[in-house]
Design brief:
By secondary structure, the chain is mainly β. 2% of the residues lie in helices and 33% in strands. The strands form seven sheets. It has a six-stranded mixed sheet. A six-stranded mixed sheet has the order 14-13-16-21-18-19, with no helix packed on it. It has a six-stranded mixed sheet with strand order 25-24-27-32-29-30, with no helix packed on it.
Length: 569
């Protein structure tokens, strides 16, 4: 492994702005005048909290200074009380394990990593320090070659669960070397210096970071390894956006037990600092309450779907004293209108109102909301998975003095805030590229998930694209039912939505939207008219040569081989 001290000159450290009870502030550079919301945890509620019982707080923030964000992210293995795991007892039966990113100066692990905030054109230097325990599971120390180690063999199953790396999901940066290179593996006890340079024409927006070491992605994300990346600028300076109260919401669903544990240990509610299994959280908290909202005030929610598998269907409605609230098959009438101003970090051309927003794992949405009436509201999530996993994920109390006149909601954004549209671009290649996602329940994991009837092989290039090409791809999914979605994700380059067999994506309000994750619906129709679900997209491979990946963002599918290598040459 490269010695981080030999990877370039040290820059002045960025700032970690954090607090415990609003009193303690850690500074990594010059003094900071203001302190972010205190992000303290515990005890977590084992049952659903009521209104006002858990305060909404945001993750710690590390901000760039002088054109550079230079920080450390230390990955630690902790128990449900947030205490570091004794590696000698790591494999003890009944253990429950979580993983957390800790920024330099942070004193305790937290379920959601710190938010990294910077401007386009800034240089990001992140020293990743893997302090997870060594394991003896097959593949932890095998299957890698080179310096730094690269994934070098085809092993499409969970392995090397404490080997890791870092993916800057949504950033338009190089996939090579020590930039957004997800073929790197950083083993337990090792450090690696990542460095990213965002181009000056990068569209500012909401993104996120998470691990992407093949074979351990699902386990690491669903045990806590996620955090927001906020590139500032662009529409942030438009008055109707700037005056809105901004909140970062990283939505996670925790599954704490590594599969090496036979039976989870018993825990009591008064000891929990990390969430229980199968609980959907906002910034690591179960159903927190946003307080102090005024009628007529606008809110900007930067939502990150840091889910390992489940999709989100989110709406906001008045709290009611009835059982099964949030259990509707669709958002009911009377919900608070949601106005997406950006998807996956890229602003929309025209702002539309929706009753609910659907996000697949990896998606982001920037929403503007305005609460016109006082009262208590509930943030609902119902993934409609056929399981009883719907319910409130948060509350709001709208109880302050009314803002008059009501704050405006933006209605459109000009071309300078967006990527140029490819919908009417005559330079898009006429020949479509067809890519098929398949899942065969009869064959069993891991051979049941494939792209173009092949499983991932890191030594094989599946898609070759010349630099500068503008292409149309048709993504297909021949899974048995329309609900058997596969969220397609491509690194480095976003794409523009053209058409889909999914009614939401074919809605006029979605046509032309830029994304980097899109849910491909399963097969539709009956009899002879039955065929794969599809999504049609267009991409401009404008910059950055090298190898990167496309994959299903159900992360157990990625670990299981539903991934391909793309080479831009």
């Amino acid at each position: 492994m490269n010695n981080p001290s030999n990877l370039g000159p040290k820059k002045p450290r960025s700032q970690l702005i954090s607090g415990i009870g609003g009193a303690l502030v850690f500074l990594l550079a010059a003094p900071q005048a203001a302190c972010a919301n205190a992000y303290t945890l515990g005890p977590q509620r084992a049952d659903l909290p009521g209104v006002g019982e858990v305060a909404f707080v945001e993750p710690d923030v590390v901000e760039a200074k002088g054109g550079s964000l230079d920080t450390e992210l230390e990955v630690v293995l902790v128990d449900q009380n947030g205490k570091p795991v004794d590696c000698e007892a790591y494999r003890s039966e009944g253990a429950r394990y979580y993983r957390a990113y800790m920024a330099e100066g942070q004193t305790e692990p937290k379920p959601t990593g710190p938010t990294l905030k910077f401007a386009r054109g800034d240089r990001l230097r992140i020293l990743l320090k893997n302090r997870m325990c060594k394991t003896d599971d097959e593949g932890s120390s095998a299957g890698f070659a080179g310096n730094p180690p690269q994934v070098s063999i085809n092993r499409n199953k969970e392995h090397g669960i404490n080997h890791t790396n870092l993916h800057t999901h949504g950033l338009w940066v190089s996939p090579a070397g020590n930039s957004d290179n997800v073929l790197i593996s950083v083993g337990p006890g090792k450090d690696f210096q990542f460095e990213y340079l965002s181009p000056e024409d990068h569209v500012p927006g909401t993104h996120w970071y998470h691990p992407h070491k093949h074979g351990s992605v699902a386990t690491q994300v669903q045990t806590g390894m996620s955090g927001a990346l906020i590139m500032t600028g662009g529409i942030d300076e438009i008055p109707a956006v700037k005056q809105a109260r901004e909140r970062v919401m990283v939505i996670q669903r925790f599954e704490a037990s590594d599969r090496i544990a036979a039976k989870p240990a018993a825990v009591t509610a008064d000891r929990l600092r990390f969430p229980e299994d199968q609980i959907t959280t906002v910034n690591g908290l179960r159903a927190p309450t946003i307080k102090g909202v005024a009628p007529g005030q606008t809110e900007r929610w930067r939502i990150v779907s840091a889910m390992a598998a489940a999709r989100l269907n989110i709406w906001v409605e008045k709290l009611q004293s009835r059982p099964g609230q949030c259990g509707a098959t669709q958002a009911p009438a009377g919900t608070v209108p949601l106005h997406p101003i950006a998807y996956d970090g890229i602003p929309v051309a025209k702002v539309h109102a929706w009753r609910e927003i659907r996000l697949y794992p990896g998606n982001r949405a920037d929403l503007i909301l305005r609460f016109d009436e006082p009262g208590t509201y509930v943030i609902c999530n119902n993934p409609r998975s056929g399981k009883p996993d719907f319910g409130p994920i948060g509350y709001l109390q709208v109880d302050q003095a009314r803002v008059e006149p009501p704050m405006p909601i933006p209605d459109a954004f000009g071309p300078k805030y967006r990527y140029p549209s490819l919908l009417d671009d005559g330079q898009v290649a006429k020949l479509q590229r067809q890519i098929l996602f398949s899942e065969d329940y009869g064959e069993g994991f891991p051979d049941s998930v494939r792209i173009d009837n092949k499983q991932f092989d890191p030594n094989r290039v599946d898609q070759r694209v010349p630099l500068g090409a503008k292409q149309e791809w048709v993504l297909k999914n021949d899974s048995e039912t329309e609900g058997d979605f596969h969220p397609y994700h491509i690194h480095v380059n976003p794409f523009q939505l053209v058409d889909s067999s999914d009614p939401i994506y074919s809605d006029d309000r979605m046509k032309g939207v830029w994304l980097d994750v899109v849910g491909i619906p399963g097969s539709t129709g009956t009899g002879e008219g039955r065929g794969p679900g599809y999504v049609k997209i267009r991409s401009h491979f404008k910059r950055f040569i090298g190898l990167y990946v496309i994959h299903c963002h159900i992360l157990s599918h990625e670990d299981g081989g539903m991934m391909q290598i793309v080479e831009v040459y």
